Amino acid sequence: MNDIQFFKKYQKQLVWFINTKIGRWFFKVDEDIKDICNVAPNSLTYDKHLERQESGEWREVKTTCFRTNNKYARLLNYRLAPLHKLAYILPSLLKPEFSPLFVPVMLTVDIYYPGSTSQNNPVDGMVNHALTNQTWSTIRDGAGNGCNYSLNEEYIIQISSGSSAWNEIKRFICLFDTSSIPDDDVISSATLSIYITENYNNSSWTPNLNVFSSNPASNTSLTNGDFDSLGTTAFATAISYENINASGYNDFTLNASGIAAISKTGISKFGLRNANYDAANSAPTWAASKSWVITARTSKYSDTSSDPKLTVTHSAVITFIPQIIFTN
To answer: Which of 16, 118, 144, 308 is the most buried (most CB within 10 A)?
Structure first.
């Protein structure tokens, strides 16, 4: 069986386990995540509670944090691998029917990873268009001639000038498998978070950064031609150059357009690009040999605590049927 089938079949046991102290260590769950009610190969759902809406109806509200890779499936496979082998050698010593913890150990778990990095399903990475001393429109509107989705840290955003004109623009694409959100749930908020490690600018430009749509040809790889797949409708409030955190997460709270881009049945596709020059198609004041570069961690980084992540809050409407009780 594949990851999602396994997690669905043994959801009760996994939820019980992940809410224990050893389970939280096992799955590397942050201390501020409480009352986990669902665990999937790439997401956790927690903090389920009822909220009364202005309309008077009650909604069951919960928060789901998505990862760009199958973090929890990978941890399950990695930590249980030695025990899994032992189960086949000494089956008489392991009785899964007596403990929910051992039920997964005795089952076949099929885990699929694209490529050697095992983390490109779905994909994240950089796309760019680079030439020497070209017009702004040639660089900005080109189809793209470069990409990379194998590095654990990447120059995800860049605007560079040459000796007499423009040289390069870089953009970032990140996809998330959000198919575990129930089809009938209402998404009330979502945040896209990117861990930035460098924000370099040797020019007089005042660039900002924002989230937009993306539509790469594949969900598991990038091609040069994906450069022009990013949209120009802002999905959040842009973060100015001065306010970019160059040593941690930068959070983009998605607006209505961004929330509408979240798929409940498949892959949610986002991208980052400069907003006030690149997306707006308004060239900054040219100066020779200048650059603005942002470096960020991708899902290939060895520590998943700095992966790109999408946190989604969604809810289901709860209908209460009033009862009239007659007493004598």
So the answer is: 308
Same-domain check for residues 245 and 309: yes
Map residue 82 onto helix, strand or coil: helix
Residue 223 lies in a domain: yes
pLDDT score at 53:
81
> Are residues 91 and 180 located together in one domain of the fold?
no
Report mean pLDDT in 10-residue bins for the chain, 328 residues: 70 91 89 88 88 83 84 78 54 45 34 39 94 98 96 95 98 89 85 95 97 96 97 98 96 96 91 98 97 94 81 70 45
In the chain, the number of structural domains is 2
Determine, yes or no, domain membership for 115: no
In a domain, 119, yes or no: no
Give ∠ CA 43-77-8 in degrees, rounded to 5: 45
Q: State the DSSP code for 180.
A: T
Query: DSSP string of 255-309?
Result: -HHHHHT--SSSEEEEEEEEIIIIITT-PPPP-TT-EEEEEEE-TTSS-GGGS-E
pLDDT score at 3: 60
Q: Are the C-beta atoms of 134 and 221 separated by less than 8 Å?
A: no
Q: How far apart are CA 109 and CA 113, in angstroms?
A: 13
Are residues 20 and 76 located together in one domain of the fold? yes
* Token pair recorded at residue 24: 């939280």
User: What is the spatial distance between Cα 176 and Cα 311, in angstroms, rounded to a whole number?
Assistant: 10
Give the structural domain span for 87.
1-32+71-110
Between the CA of residue 128 and those of 37, 144, 168, 182, 217, what are the distances in Å?
A: 40, 6, 7, 35, 15
pLDDT of residue 88: 47
Please list, in sequence order, all residues whose beta carbon lies within 8 angstroms of the beta carbon of residue 227, skipping any fewer than 6 positions away. Answer: 127, 128, 129, 142, 143, 144, 145, 146, 147, 171
Q: Which residues contact 85 (CB under 8 A, 6 or more apart)?
A: none
